[in-house]
Each structure stands twice: as structure tokens, then as C-alpha cells.
Design brief:
By secondary structure, the chain is α+β, with helices and mostly antiparallel strands. It is about 30% helix and about 25% strand. The two termini are about 55 Å apart.
Amino acid sequence: MRRVEDPRFLAGQGRYVEDVQPPDTLHLAFVRSTYPAARLARVDTTAANAAAGVVAVLTAEDVTDLGDVPTIPLPFAKIPPHPVLARGRVAAVGEPIAAILAETPAQARDAADLVEVDYEPRPSVAAAEDALAEDAPRVHPELESNVCYRLVRDGGEPDAAFEDAEVTVSLRVDNPRVAPVPLEPRGVVAVPEGDQLTVWISSQNPHGTRADLSRVLGLDEATMRVIAPDVGGGFGAKSGATPEYILAAALARQHGRPVKWVATRSEDMLVTTQGRDMLIEVELAARRDGTITGLRLRNIANLGARLYSASAIPATFILSMGCGCYQIPNVHIETLSVFTNTPATGPYRGAGRPESVLAIERGIDRLARALGMDPIELRRKNFVPPDAFPYHAATGAEYDSGDYAHALDVALELAGYPELVRQREAARARGELMGIGISTFVEPSGSVGGETGLVRVEPGGQVTVVTGSHSHGQGHETSFAQLVADALHVPMQQVRVLHGDTKDIDRGTGTFASRSLVLGGSAVVTAAGRVLDKARRIAAHQLEATPADIEVTDSGFTVAGVPARSVTWPAVAAAAHDAGRLPPGETPGLEEHELFDPGREQWPFGTHLAVVRVDRDTGAVTLERIVAVDDCGTVVNPLIVAGQVQGGIAQAIGQALVEQVSFDQAGQVLSGSLGDYALPRAGDLPPIELGHTETPSPFNPLGAKGVGEAGTNGCPPAIANAVLDALAPLGVTELDIPYTPARIWAAIHQAR
């Protein structure tokens, strides 16, 4: 089933925040810090205030009535102040110091250039590991250290496992920082309407953003409507309220006019939360036969200088994901999140999952080399077996269902693995550098918190579906319509799906963490089931039969065994809205609302395989093939699943080969534009061969699991292991991504 959304996008008929153009709109621009750490000795706005078209210029002294930028209040995290405009000091490049409100975007930007800021630079630190040193500059003087939190997860007896081990290996795995770079930069339009405020925003969770804004502004949520129209990519970076959104809303109310801000590309690169930036130390203990007996992981995560909505969450995932697909009885996992003088990090497609998978999968390949064992056979030997599910890992995580060996077998067969090995050995005999890499992974999806769904049959028989989830590329308007059409036995064209507007449904959690179909889909299909039950009762009343005798067909409702006695959906819908035609005890209407929350996660899994060649002379890596076999439980729409996996793989290729946000030692940004920050292009993507297995989850009515982040989780370790396999004949055993030609060339020459 092709996506019903696509024709309007392909015809240029999508509507984004930039397309929202209310009359009499004012425009925002910001003066941002050019220093990673400094005291603000003077901020002179005199010239800016006098500039053409300027309505207001604000600094921290002008917004003392606004609260801090909100973040999820994790009980174990230290949360430093985060004012919407810098108050007396800055802690990272890009922090907003002044806001300019003007009649046009150009006038606002021109006035911003007239603001004079005198900085008194202070010592700063950019790397999380450096920030842990006792003499490191303090990012937030009010805190006793740069550590936001430290969490530990123990299972079994890890110290004894390492003492008794016959073989141990250790390595450090660096996950470089990356920028989300969505096609649509962040933006907001705040429109005052009497005592109401409508805020258009490029967001993944409009209900959560409404809650954040109402809290900071001191408003009742009932007076605020948040609309997330078409969103050109989110990837985790478009959640919650930010200084720009808060100020746009506050100034719209203050001036009684719409206020708009849309980030420039360079602003978006700099101040939209970035991802990854975790350094993980891995230790594995094993017997000589390949049985893994122990695991130690230590993760150091760079939060940047400030906490946004979910900034502190990604580094927690390694606590449950550390063991990967493997039965490891003894584990010790420690994760530290650390403040530095860099722009903030936060969730980015995968959000702590890709980092965890890269760590354990690099470790498995290292252990296989130490044992002299085939890395595929080492994986097989230690997989959680299919009959062990639901499986409780030593980390405390509960894996719902799985057959990891089957996914591996399908991937190897799809790739023609024996022939690949033959080709690699032949290439090596010719002096060429060819490598094959495997990654087997499992990840949590459908994070707790639940999701809402509403299904309503209108008087004419049309069906309206409203979800608290939100689509920014996931295809909700197609897959949710498929689910409800199947549940109600109506044509899919008869179903309309609404999302992204807080007036349509009372609450919603939004889209992130591969949760849309698992939670949002389960909510609407559960609500649809109750709608069908009520419709069956109404049909029975009309047909003078019992509900148990009513059968649902594609044309409506019939009496079992008497197909001539039937009633159509429109007739049932009309009766449902007429109190005089209802069975006793029924209320008018045909609408059901569901909050679906299973209280546990679903664990999709898969195997990815990469084939690479490395040029000895230039260090260039050529990706020849990617084979990806994923298991997301029950598949509702194979085309959408394939698109999600392919998109994730494209981002994974960028992370593995070219992408890295770079800073100097102090925290000055060195990759602040697309002239300095590399992204994968169409020509960089090799043939991608997809396969699927289906192992339904027992924890939701669809049997579904998430798939939106599978590519970013499974693919980077496959590429990393393939490159290291290619370089193995040269004695290169450790090298961190991204595998740029310069980095590979240097490793080759160092090995020589």
C-alpha cells in the first residue's frame, strides 16, 4: 500500500511552519554567544533599538518573569539553571544573549548585528572525559562538579567472572557527535487570539510542547493550542520547548501580534540539540570455548552545557541494552553524563541505542579475534535462544520475544555469505583490502508513557481517526488508516487520520523512540474494536437479532445464516446519532477513546551485514553492499517499513563514514555549516538489500515492534567491523568512526 501522504508532498503542497503567514507578523532574531565560556561584561542594545523596523530588543533583564527552559525532571540528574536569554554569563557557543523583534526578518537580523557584547572569556572544556578531571573548568559554578548524573547497573557477579575468565578483552569505542540536519530547520509562529494563543511549531510532540510552554509562561493549557503541521524531519531533535519558542509565545501575547522565528541553516546546525558524543569502555570475559561470562561497560556522555527536554535520557539506555543479543550472566554497567562548554546534545535517531550496539558489537568482534573464533559462530553460541523469551537479562531488561539466530541465517543467505568470504580471500591474495562486517542487535521500542487514540464514525459513515502520536515521515495517515479500515471492515478511503493538533485530542505523547505503531497503532485499533462492538449492538437492534448473531462484512452487518437481512455502515452510523433509534442503555454517538500503555517495552532485533573495500593509497572506503534483515514483529505496511530502514541506514552511513561535529579544545565550533560538516549523498549509498523476519510481540494487540531506528542501530557496527576486517591484514585492530579517508590513510601509514 503506497503512502497516501506522498502525492501532496511530491506536488509541493505540504504545509510547514515557514508557510504559516498570518497578517501583521513580527519576526525574531537572536544575538548568540561567540565564546564557549565567558562573563557578559556589557550588552549594549542602544543602536539596535534605534534601527529601522525594530519593535523591541530584549536581554535577560527584560524576561525575568519567564521560567527556565523546561527539561524532564529526572530524579537522579542535577539540573542547572537554563534561562531563555543568557544571564550574566554564557556556557557554550550559540547561547542566545539578546532577542530582536522587528517588522521583517531582514530588519531583525540587521538589528542583531548592531548589538554590542563585551565578553570576558573564561576557561572552558569541550570533551566529556576532560571535564571529569578534578582541575577541569566548572561549566556551572553552582554545581560541585561537571557530572550531571552517574548510574550503575549490576547483575550477577561481574568481578568473579573476570577473575575466573580464561580470556578477556578490552577496548574503547568513541561515538562522535553528529548534527541532525533535518530538511526543515526548527521554527515557530505564535498567534494571539484574544485570551487564547495558537502556536504553530515544527515539533514531534505538540502536546508535550504545549505543556512546557504553558508551564514557563504561567498559562492554563486550555488557553493554548499547539499545531505541528507537516514536519520536515525530526530525528529526536524537535521535542519540547526551546528559548526561541518560549520567547515567540511570550512576545506574541505581550504585543498582541503574531511572532515568527525560523532558524537559518547555520543556526539550526549550531543550536538544535546534537546527538551521540559518548565514549564507552568495553570489557568482556569468556571461556576458551567462546562462552561469554562477564561484561563491564563504562559510558561517558557529553551533554553539552544545557539540558533541554530529553537531553539527559539517551545515556541511560546503555544500562538496559549493554548485553545486546547475548546471554551474559554477570554485568557491571556504569553511565556518566557530563556537562561541557559545548552546544547541548539530546536524542538523535536511536538516542543511546546505536552507541550501545556499537560498543557490544565491536567488543564481540574483538573477542572473536582473541579467541581465534569465527565472529558469526561466537554470536550464535551466545545468543539468547528462542525458547527463553520473555527473557530477563542480567541488566534487568525484559526482552519480549526473539529469534536472533534466524535473522542472522536469513541475512547470511541473502548476502550469499560463503561466496563473499571467497571473494574477500581472493581479493586479499591480490593485495586488496576488502572486509565483511556483521552486526546483530536488539533494541527497546515503544517506550513507556502510552499513547492516545480516538476513533469516531460520523453520521454519514465516514471514519475519523485522531492520534496523539505525530507523523513527520512515518506514514501515520496510511498505516493508521489501514489498521482502522481492517478493524471496522470499511474501505481505507473512507478513513481520515488526524494528528499534530492539540485541539483534536485531549492528550498525546508524540513520536520518538520507535513507538508510533506499537503504542499509537495499538490505541486506535483498540478504540476501533470498541466502536465495532457498539455498532454491532446497534445493527442487532435494527435487525431484531442478538449481537452474537451479527456478522461484519465489507458491505455492513448481516444476520448469521441470513445474509439477506443486512444493514449498511451508513445506516448504522445514522442510527448511532439518533437517540430514538438506539438500543436501550446506549448513548448517542459512535466514538471511542483509548489510552494504550502496556507498561513495558517491545524489543525489535536484526542482523546487518556490510561489505567494504579500502583504497590503500587514499584511505577512501567504498561501501559495496548493505544487507539488512530486521524483525519488527507484525508488519502492517512493508513499504513503510522498508522506507524507515533505508532512511536509518542512510543516516548510519553518514555517521560511520563522514559525519562529525568538531570543536577545538576550548569548545569553539569548527563544523558550523554544511561547508564544514559532511553529509552522505545519494552516490555514497550502496545497493541496500532488505529482508525481514516476523516474531510478534506478546505485549500489544498488533504484535508490533518499532522499526524507525533499526538502520541507525544495526548498520554502523556492521560498517565498523567491515572496515576493521579489511584493515586486519595490515595489523590495524582499533579505529573509531567516522572512517574518513584521512583517518584511514593515517591508520594505514601508522601500521606500516
